[in-house]
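May I ask you to review the protein record following this short note?
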Amino acid sequence: MDPTSRIRLSLGFVSTAISMIFGMDRGRKTPLSPGSIEVLYSSYFSKVRMGDIAGMLKITPSSATDLVNYLEREGFMRRIQDENNRRSILVVPTEKGEEWILDTEEKMYGFIESGLSRLKPDEQLLFADLCARFSGVHDNFSFLASVKSFKEDRGSVRVPLITRKNGRLLRLEEVVDARYSEKHVVEKKEDNMIFETRVPETCDGIQDEVTVEQYDEMQRGLRDEGHMPIEELVKFSQSGDNALEVGPGPGYLGLEWLKHTKDTNLTGLEISPAMIRMAEKNAKDYHLSDRATYREGNALAMPFSDGTFDLAFSNGSLHEWEDPKKVFSEILRVLKPGGRVSVSDLKRDLSTEIYRFMLETCEGSEIRKGFETSVHAAYVQEELEKMLGDVGFSWLQVITHPYGLVVIGKK
């Protein structure tokens, strides 16, 4: 049997088995519909606002309300007020809802471990890697992006199989044998990056107050959803670090870093006075004004003495740097011997699914436009490796992941 048919048959079994695990084979006896399960799972792993459910499920607001009302009556979910936005109502699982999820996951993990037990340890790792490459799903973020993209594209992603011959509708195996016979070669189409050629973005930052407020709201949402590289940055840090953040914007990454580290201090170098005012306001809200200082300046010529900082980091501003090599040279200069650098940013070769998902999370026309130009101005791994190869760090590595790049190094 050809690979395509084998995969389809295997996935057909997996789909049937998983439906049984979720109780979908019980017909009307199951207490939860597919939409209910999606809302319950989504609210378990991330914040779900009442007003977002209709768009998430592609149903009317009244139908979304009816669905939540049902889940509340059955004891699976409850409504609460969002602590960060008193006008927003969140839906969260009750203990019964969490127990249903955990019971389902016990069955799911058992099903997966049973199948993996037929593979050797190295085959298990290979299988996991192939599944990630096949699906495009590497973590929670790419899972959400892929699900959303599949919802939109599932009607258009089809291979023609309905065929008639002499008035007779051909059976599936007849069409498949003809299409996927050994003589039939399917040429793989290489995935193209969203933007082939890099187009530089403004190097002046966001200056107007209205867009700064919109950007602040977006960044706060990314923080609340856990989409900032805070955990990785904390692991990269040491107690007592005096850190430099290049292009902090509204400051959430640096402030979260301060919040999760001990005896640390932060200086943010920002080109936009409006962003500095927002960052200072946020630092006050965090009660961290005594540990966070923001300076106006250009990263091409940093207003700091040699060997000032133990750590330098940045997230989301690399694509705006007029001369990244010069900025990394400046970072090298202001770091102490043994100092570390961690710079994360978008990449230009995002998958279509993740690009589309990230774009749709941007609220406000200016922010959406800014995201598009930011991806267009972003780099790919090979470009940065070539550009930064001789900057002078004792080691410097460019790492790519599904939704961006990370440059880490040491002086």
Remarks:
- Confidence is low (pLDDT under 50) at residues 184-191.
- The CA atoms of residues 229 and 270 lie 19 Å apart.
- The two ends are 55 Å apart (CA to CA).
- The longest helix spans residues 95-116.
